[in-house]
Amino acid sequence: MERFTISLDAPLAEAFDRLIHTKGYLNRSEAVRDLLRQQLGEHQLQHDAAPYCIAALSYIYNHHERELAERLTALQHRQHDLTLSTMHAHLDHDNCMETVFLRGPTPAVREFANALLAERGVRHGMLNLVPADLEPLPPHQHAHQAQASGANGQRYRHVHSRPRN
Question: Domains in the chain, ordered, with CATH?
Answer without folding.
Answer: 10-46 (1.10.1220), 52-132 (3.30.70.1150)
